[in-house]
Each structure stands twice: as C-alpha cells, then as structure tokens.
Amino acid sequence: MELRLLVEGIYGPPASHLNGLDIGRAYWGANQEFRYGGDLVDVFHYGNGLTSLAVVDISGHGILAARHAGLVKHALRAYASCSFSAIDSIRALNRLCIENCAYEGEIEFFATAFFAIVDSRRETMEYVSAGHEAAFIVKAGGHRLLEATGPILGLLDDDHSFHQKTVKLDNADVLVAVTDGFAEARNESLAFLGADAIIDIIRRTHDRSAAEQAQAVTAVALEFAGTRLQDDIAALVAKITRP
Helices (H) and strands (E) in the chain — how many of each? Predict the structure, then answer.
C-alpha cells in the first residue's frame, strides 16, 4: 500500500479546468497488480497563464519505469517554470535522459514524448513531438495530426535533431494524445486498433467532458483488446473552452 501511494504521488491529482481548457486524463495499466509504470500524462499551470501538457511513454515497466516517469515529470515542470520553450525543454530532457543513464549505470532510458505549451492569451500552442506518433487536434470540420518533430528521447545527443511547431487554437478544438498501447491494442484476429480510431472516439463523445472523453479512449482500447492488452495506455484530452 505504501509503495502504491508513493508511485501514485508521482502522477498527482487530476487537473480539470484551467485557463480556457477543460482537461481530462486517463490511465489503464496492462498489469493491474502494479497499476502505474512508464506511461505519464502531466498537466502544469504556471507563469502568466501558461499550461504545459506532457504525454510520455518511457521504456520498460514497473518501479524503474515509474521512477523515470517521476524524473521526467518534474524535470519538464522545472524547465517550463524557468520559462524554457517547448523545444528547449525537450532538448534539456533529452540530455538528462542520456546523462542520468550514464551516471547511474543503467542500460537504457528511452522515451517518446509529446510536450506542448498552451498560451491561452495568444490562443496558440507550441509543441515538440519526440518520436510520439499519436497526437491530434480534432476540429469541427476535420482533424490535424501533430506529427513527430524529432527522435525519441535518450537516443541522440543532438539538439538540432529536435524541432518545434506552433499551431493556432480555436474555440471547441480538442487536443488528444495517447501512448502507443492504444494503437498497438489487438483484437482476437490480432488486428491493430490503430491511432486513427482516436478521431472517431472524440467525435462520438464531443458533448462529454474532457475527463469522460479520456476515459472513453482507454475503454475502447480495453474493449477491443480484452485480456490481450499487453501495454499500458495513457490518454490526455484538452478541450479549448474560450468564453
């Protein structure tokens, strides 16, 4: 019980309504005996109306992956609160992954990460996607894939391999990002669920809160895969709710 409380403390309390954002997150652990592992969703409100959003999938499982998740969470929060941009935060985190692994003598410390900073005043979001393949902005008339803008973290000590993009946010836009356990969920025929299924879920649940939508995302994957679910799934949904 003490270990569970300690690990759950890494993930912190759920966020809900922040500065024009309705935020929901959900987590489903493939190993329910130890619910939390290397999948991380973090929301951090700081500065003059800025909100950082992180979805990270860390290599490995169990306690070591959870420990790395705690390191990533608080490192990104520290970088953001020091006014780092999204790209500078990811570059610093990449170096931390490499140097921490070397210092502690660990075999590997790799992660995919989607990291964004939302500026509600300017109605923009800057983001970096380090090898993260499943992030979208769903709009009333379509959707946009937020494609990868750099390699996975911990692989290359090269700041120039990461790039940042900025997108305009409109009222009622929905940002949704999941870890790869969603796309890689398989049914009885061993067919993959695929990331595109996210779009259908968000559209079918557009009248629900962000928290309910995030839960719906993980529920669909669990229903699709059942006991064949082999990887953890974390989901983040952020709805733009401008007055």
Answer: 6, 11
